[in-house]
């Protein structure tokens, strides 16, 4: 239970007390600052507490936005302030100063909430102020202003605004025009029945897994049902975020589920399609793994570029200016969002092609579309980086270093790498990755050439990260490392040419990719990278690449398949257990994905 302290004399006919109770607040009345201090001291330290001016006039959803959002330690709107336990001490100090001001307990409570907000600002507490748009939140000074405020409240449909704001502000064309117009009402239906975003997210995952199972049957009926279920899963995927925004049910667990389940659903569906194709006599596991690698590397490019530039100073370029200019022309915005093949367009394409064609055609279309999108976005970001005069921060450099996922071998060689005057990290990472992938591709299975290529890769890896990654193109280092590791596994498994090797490689890449996504979302939530012991335990990108090449050289094709499977299981267990422990802990950030379309 949260507590709201109403300051001042209640206004006859005001619905404020009822609105606060409907939001889950236990309402207490304070005649002056001294009463407010006494009531505040009586509220348990682990509860949210709000101080609200009794003269407040506004929409219930304005109060919801300003007083109940769990993502912020302190939030405020005109005439009201709310704090969570972490900001409680600052509020207590501010209230104590008010009650001890000249006049003592008789100090009037006019504008007390506003003064407390200003005191928290001065105390260094970050106070969130939601954008209300057409919603009303005001503290009228006289009856005339009160009547005007009440008329303004009546003129705006609170529920309509709440429904509109439940939809993500920036999304893809398909999601915006084909899903959100009705999924927001599904979100409201769920809210009125007490369902949580986590339950809807889980339902979306289960639906996608059933779709993957239908695709795995290899029958035309199974493919048709799989396509329909995949689209329904996507509707639920939109609904969970809209439900979270509609009811402000953000949570630590929800952040983890929302961040990782999209990838789990999509990649499980790839596996289902590959299994279905195999039942029909067509082996497309290499295409499925290639699609997963391409999609994962696309995301790493997005994450690395954004982390490198989100807090850079003097962060402008002619390319960015042209992009902003194009965004000012309405139709170009949607074209540019569609050609990057965000999740809505991508899943719609996969669903339709699954139902109407074959898994092989579906994967060909997916690979071509994603390759074009990756080329378009990466080229644009390279141009921005080369023409941008930006100074990147230490935080950005640390985030990129964490995203590289360098392990114990790179650490061991770092002391020697400092003596090498090499200052092109992206080129170094690309060269090392190209050597190991080409060696694996050109040499026959069982050759030691891939091992030599991996040794070269290991030796170059620390050279790419020995200095802070603050260069114009240094954000390319993590995606180059991801591509090198994943492609090496793919090529070696394909060269083994034995049933089960590519599915085992698919499982290994999926486990490692999960670890990399988990790293990204921890950094996004300002929680830092995964613990150092975990990175060391799973070997880092260079250690895993070397290990896989050595296994391919030492073992027969059948034994290599078994080794890949065992390695996939070991990595998956380690990263999943640690990830679940972190995201369900109280120390995880309460965030929800509001970024670019996935």
Automatic annotation (TrEMBL):
UniProt keywords, alphabetically: Membrane, Transferase, Transmembrane, Transmembrane helix
GO biological process, one term: phospholipid biosynthetic process
Chain segments annotated as transmembrane: 361-383, 422-442, 448-466, 487-513, 533-555, 562-584
Residue intervals of the DUF5941 domain: 394-598
Top-level division of the source organism's lineage: Bacteria
Any one GO cellular component localisation term in the record: membrane
InterPro entries xrefs: CDP-OH_P_trans, CDP-OH_PTrfase_TM_dom, CDP_ALCOHOL_P_TRANSF_CS, DUF5941
One GO MF term attached to the UniProt entry: phosphotransferase activity, for other substituted phosphate groups
Family indicated by similarity: Belongs to the CDP-alcohol phosphatidyltransferase class-I family.
Name used for this protein in its record: DUF5941 domain-containing protein
Organism: Streptomyces sp. R35
Biological classification of the source: Bacteria, Bacillati, Actinomycetota, Actinomycetes, Kitasatosporales
């Amino acid at each position: 239970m949260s507590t709201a302290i109403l300051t001042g004399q209640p206004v006859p006919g005001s619905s404020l007390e009822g609105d606060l109770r409907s939001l889950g607040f236990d309402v207490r009345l304070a005649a002056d600052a001294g009463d407010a201090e006494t009531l505040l001291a009586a509220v348990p330290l682990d509860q949210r507490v709000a101080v609200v001016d009794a003269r407040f006039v506004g929409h219930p959803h304005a109060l919801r936005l300003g007083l109940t959002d769990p993502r912020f330690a302190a939030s405020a709107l005109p005439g009201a302030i709310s704090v969570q336990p972490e900001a409680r001490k600052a509020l207590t100090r501010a209230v104590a100063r008010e009650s001890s001001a000249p006049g003592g307990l008789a100090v009037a409570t006019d504008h007390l909430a506003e003064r407390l907000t200003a005191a928290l600002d001065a105390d260094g507490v970050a106070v969130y102020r939601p954008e209300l748009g057409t919603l009303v939140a005001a503290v009228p000074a006289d009856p005339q202003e009160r009547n005007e405020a009440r008329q303004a409240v009546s003129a705006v449909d609170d529920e309509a605004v709440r429904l509109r704001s439940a939809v993500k502000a920036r999304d893809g064309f398909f999601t915006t025009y084909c899903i959100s117009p009705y999924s927001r009402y599904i979100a409201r239906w769920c809210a009125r029945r007490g369902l949580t975003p986590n339950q809807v997210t889980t339902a979306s995952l289960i639906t996608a897994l059933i779709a993957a199972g239908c695709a795995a049957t290899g029958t035309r009926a199974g493919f048709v049902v799989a396509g329909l279920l995949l689209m329904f899963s996507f509707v639920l995927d939109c609904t969970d975020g809209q439900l979270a925004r509609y009811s402000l049910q953000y949570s630590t667990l929800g952040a983890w589920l929302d961040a990782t389940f999209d990838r789990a659903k999509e990649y499980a569906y790839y596996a289902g399609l590959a299994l279905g194709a195999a039942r029909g006599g067509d082996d497309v596991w290499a295409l499925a793994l290639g699609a997963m690698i391409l999609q994962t590397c696309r995301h790493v490019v997005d994450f690395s570029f954004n982390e490198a530039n989100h807090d850079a100073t003097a962060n402008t370029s002619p390319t960015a200016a042209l992009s902003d200019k194009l965004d000012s022309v309405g139709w170009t915005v949607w074209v540019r969002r569609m050609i990057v093949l965000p999740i809505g367009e991508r899943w719609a394409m996969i669903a339709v092609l699954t139902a109407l064609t074959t898994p092989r055609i579906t994967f060909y279309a997916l690979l071509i579309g994603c390759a074009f999108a990756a080329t378009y976005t990466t080229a644009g970001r390279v141009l921005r980086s080369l023409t941008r005069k930006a100074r990147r921060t230490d935080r950005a450099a640390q985030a990129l270093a964490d995203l590289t996922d360098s392990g114990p071998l790179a650490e061991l060689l770092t002391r020697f790498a400092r003596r090498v005057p090499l200052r092109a990290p992206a080129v170094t990472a690309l060269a090392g990755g190209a050597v190991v992938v080409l060696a694996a591709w050109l040499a026959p299975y069982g050759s030691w050439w891939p091992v030599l290529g991996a040794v070269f890769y290991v030796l170059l890896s620390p050279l790419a990260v020995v200095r802070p990654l603050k260069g114009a193109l240094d954000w390319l280092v993590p995606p180059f490392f991801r591509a090198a590791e994943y492609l090496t596994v793919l090529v070696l498994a394909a060269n083994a040419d034995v049933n089960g090797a590519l599915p085992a490689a698919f499982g290994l890449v999926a486990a490692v990719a999960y670890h990399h996504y988990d790293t990204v979302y921890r950094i996004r939530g300002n929680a830092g990278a995964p613990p150092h012991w975990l990175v060391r335990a799973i070997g880092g990108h260079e250690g895993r690449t070397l290990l896989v090449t050595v296994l391919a050289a030492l073992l027969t094709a059948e034994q290599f398949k078994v080794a890949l499977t065992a390695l996939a299981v070991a990595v998956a267990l380690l990263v999943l257990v640690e990830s679940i422990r972190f995201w369900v802990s109280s120390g995880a950030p309460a965030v929800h994905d509001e970024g670019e379309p996935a």
